[in-house]
Amino acid sequence: MSESSRPIGVAVLGMGNVGTEVVRILTDKAADLQARVGAPLELRGVAVRDTTRTRDGVDPALLTDDPMALVQRDDVDLVVELIGGIKPARKLILTALEGGKSVVTANKALMAEHAGELSKAAEDRRVDLYFEASVAGAIPVIRPLTQSLAGDSVTRVAGIVNGTTNFILSEMGESGAGYGKVLAEAGRLGYAEADPTADVEGYDAASKAAILASIAFHSRVTASEVHREGITGISAKDFDAAKKFDCTIKLLAICERIDVDGEQKISARVYPALVPLDHPLATVNGAFNAVAVEAENAGRLMFYGQGAGGAPTASAVLGDLVMAARNRVFDGRGPLESTYAGLPVASIDEVPTRYYVSMKVADVAGVLHQVSGEFAQRGISIAAVRQEGAGDDARLIVVTHRASDRAQSDTVAALEKMDSVLKVSSVLRLEGTDD
Ligand SMILES: NC(=O)C1=CN([C@@H]2O[C@H](COP(=O)(O)OP(=O)(O)OC[C@H]3O[C@@H](n4cnc5c(N)ncnc54)[C@H](OP(=O)(O)O)[C@@H]3O)[C@@H](O)[C@H]2O)C=CC1
Ligand SMILES: N[C@@H](CC=O)C(=O)O
Predict the structure, then answer these.
(1) I need a surface site. Which of 19, 156, 286, 335 has the fewest CB within 10 A?
(2) Residue 193 beta carbon below 6 angstroms from any ligand 1 atom
(3) Is 215 in the pocket of ligand 1 (CB under 6 A)?
(4) Catalytic residue among 108, 208, 360, 417
């Protein structure tokens, strides 16, 4: 470790939708984070505009309305920028980087325009500048593109990268809900930008497309170079028409390497488009995002998850924060194995699952009652039962609620001894459904 295990000082700039969740996790998960980093993460201050407002989960003494002073403090090692926009975020981040502090940001508007300048400042001082949360909320997509696929050649990155517009379009498509009402709900749920025009006019998605195209194609693409169309012109009539063609409407961001008259170019574009109902993107609803990456050797990869909202975005911020902090503690190369939690592995009998039991039965009265009794006797509750066929083909299919492996195997053993059960033909676990 380069700095032994002295605490890592963290400054959080902005305590809105995302900042509030970041502060909560830093506080609630302090012990886990310390074990993962190799040193405690200590919150030195939280910058907001209005320090008089009560903020749950933070010591009021930590609040400041002077983010520049906070960033420049000697006891701050890492700066988490969650204010958004260009001013004052750009200057704050530059000051932090130039002062030798690593920076984590969720600010796509800034990264889409100033990545070059900010990256150079980070490289000059050999500190980190991480921005996983700037694209697609909780979904890891920046790190896969910059690290996991570093040895491949990406040809296309495309998908749904704005939660607010996807939430609006999903609601309009499903319930015909009014645009204004759904947009207000997206704001209330913490999905929308401070100025939601950025979402509905496609600026936010264009910033994300610029970031994705830049890192995927090892080039510099800015938001203003991305072709952009928003969703404000989409009406219920468009959804009706789309349905007639078995399609829905999604705001897509598409970044491709293309050949134009023998010259390799990048196409980066954002627009609402008809998507066939059987296409994987058609089932991405609400604030969920999905990004498909195509690379020459890996082929097609899909990333799916929550693309907006305080807690999901905070997850990506914390991931970056832990990595940046570890780089400080271990000089960029931490231990490869993390075993601090030391949890034991549960036996299968300690993990109740649901079961599907299919059996050949004698076609006699009362068999259903007898079979159900065997399950009940061992405390297994039946979710559904079906009798199929008749005579020699009579079968009984039982689907249970969660039960232990032992209770299930004891029941099957008992069923096999019954005269009315000729054979238990299959026992499968049922996953993908809740009780
Ligand atoms: N919300 C989301 O789902 C996602 C957001 N992001 C990005 O994360 C960033 C933060 O978003 P979000 O949390 O939603 O934004 P909010 O608007 O909810 O919060 C912004 C915070 O910044 C503070 N702030 C604003 N200006 C200043 C200033 N000059 N000095 C000090 N503090 C200031 C505000 O203070 P005050 O509370 O006093 O008003 C507020 O706490 C943005 O870059 C956004 O694009 C990225 C992915 C998803
Ligand atoms: N406003 C953005 C927030 C996350 O990036 C969105 O709706 O996707």
Answers:
(1) 335
(2) yes
(3) no
(4) 208
